[in-house]
Specification:
CATH superfamily of the largest domain in chain A: P-loop containing nucleotide triphosphate hydrolases
Oligomer: heterodimer
Membrane topology (chain B): Multi-pass membrane protein
Number of strands of chain A: 12
Number of domains of chain B: 1
Distance between the termini of chain B: 46 Å
Order of helices and strands of chain B: HHHHHHHHHHHH
Largest sheet of chain B: none
Organism (chain B): Dongia mobilis
Structural class of chain A: alpha/beta
Family (chain B): Belongs to the binding-protein-dependent transport system permease family.
Strand order of the largest sheet of chain A: 6-7-8-3-9-10-12-11
Radius of gyration of chain A: 20 Å
Helix content of chain A: 25-40%
Structural class of chain B: mainly alpha
Protein name (chain B): Peptide/nickel transport system permease protein
Largest interface: A-B, 30 and 17 residues
Number of helices of chain A: 10
Strand content of chain A: 15-25%
CATH class of chain B: Mainly Alpha
CATH architecture of the largest domain in chain A: 3-Layer(aba) Sandwich
Keywords (chain B): Cell membrane, Membrane, Peptide transport, Protein transport, Transmembrane, Transmembrane helix, Transport
Chain lengths: 321, 294
Amino acid sequence: MALLTVENLGIDIHGIRPLDGVSFSVDKGEILGIVGESGSGKSLTALSVIGLLPLIGGRILRGSIRFDGIDLATLPEAEFRRLRGRRIAFITQNPMTSLDPVMRIGAQIDQVSMLHLGLDARAAQARSIEIMAQLRIPEAATIYHHFPHQLSGGMKQRIVIAMALAADPDLIIADEPTTALDVTIQAQIVDLLVELVRERDVALILITHDMGVVAQTCDRVVVLYAGRVAESDAVAAIFERPRHPYTRALIGCIPRDETAHGNLTGIPGAVPSVAHYPAGCRFHPRCPRRGAPCDHIVPVSAAMDGGLFACHFPENSGVAR
Amino acid sequence: MTAATAPHDHFWLTFRRSLAGKVLLTPKGGVAGAYLLVLVLIALTAPWITPYPFDQQALPLANRPPSLANWLGTDEFGRDVLSRIMYGARTSLSVSVTAISVSVLVGMALGAAAGYFGGMFDRGVTAAVDLSWSFPEILIALILVAIIGPGLHSTMLAIAIAYLAQFTRLTRAQIMGLKGETYIEATLSLGASHGHVVFRHLMPNALAPVIVCGMLATGDAIILEATLGFFGLGAQPPVPSWGAMMSSGSALIFTAPWIIVFPGLAVAITVVMINLFGDALIRALDIRANLREG
């Protein structure tokens, strides 16, 4: 039994249904990538798992989220709060805005361990400085007393990661942790996260729109499109033989050496908005392989060689177009 | 030489960068700060430093113009105007500062709760705020004093309630803007309670504009207190207040103008200084820049 298993998750936000039948699982020591373009439901999936959907007026409509034997979909808020930060930690998208501007960063890390581990101020400070040092923050004891505006973006993201680690969680959800950072810093942060998973044996859900990052770091990957799972598989397998045309298109978007002398590849069109999801397969208006059933029959998820995909005309599967 | 001056330089640098330094080292903030400091000291030490007791009457010496013995003249009972103005600072400052402090505290609590939780409570608070917003503060204060009865404490209460809407509305708006910030979501995602989020994160971030607004409202409150005193609704005789002094001087405005002019100047200068200090505070806190960044 995996540490976290999400099955057939559907949510409702003020009458719209941005997630429809999302399933995945992640275990300790494993990195699961959730990929997709903006608007595909990645962040909403994260919010569902962390139980913060009510914050944006949403609720879980159906499906289950099982974390270590606990059903998070029906867990009362008071109990969920004890879990948040303690066993499931969340790393937000933009480190520039994820820290309270008027609170010293040390105090912000301290509050997590004081809240969840019951440490006193002195023990919390010692713990925070230790974690900061582990995250290779130079002069941690000095930085501890700084305010967020005195730090660079990469350093802020390390502080956000330190906050996530402060109570020693089992599962970390990182929502595009590198999107707002310089390219040079991105690699450092990603490496840091990978190292954490291997050393501490935690589960990591890495939400990203960058297939390149997935290829470098993840063990398995879930490709989301318009609130549904297009395909999920081990990373090696998905890069070797993508079945869903959308997966192939995403992989095609990774810049390569030969791109230097040509144009970057894109996917024509955009993810449809929640209010205007097309019938049938939601990718069909942008799909190069679409056929007769695609615009009115929703493809069912099919399993093949350990992977799952939802497509009428999958690639690399012997199904003729 | 350099080694000896280093600690002093360090202190100077720290001061210059601190909020107090940023306020007091500007011309406005420095002058206003010095004036307010002297005024507070006078108010605190009035019983020991006034040239005469505030209630020492000497009818033969009534309505004397300013002289060496009575720098600002004497009133219709022969009491020293300067001594009474110094005592009046006690009344004026204590009433306005207490009233505005209460108003800020209650207004922040109401505004934060309304802004953060929303719903019916928010609608109720907003309706009450809008209702009281549509009356001038002076009218609200007059009605309240009429209900509770005149006196120092009812003046404080009336002023506190008259300014409540302002701070409630300001705090509510601040909190509503701040609660969408990523760091609030981040804090919640780490298991913080709503109380923790409101008191440790939202309130401190919303504080700066409320402090400035409170500072400026203190100036208005001094005028309001003087107005209530002028109508005989504030501090009751023989406790001196600037408003009451002007009221008694109004009958003698042509024969002994100093009785009304000097307390009036005290009110005017104090309010101007508080406003200058507030201006300096706005610049030092860089509130507009803060609001721009969210």
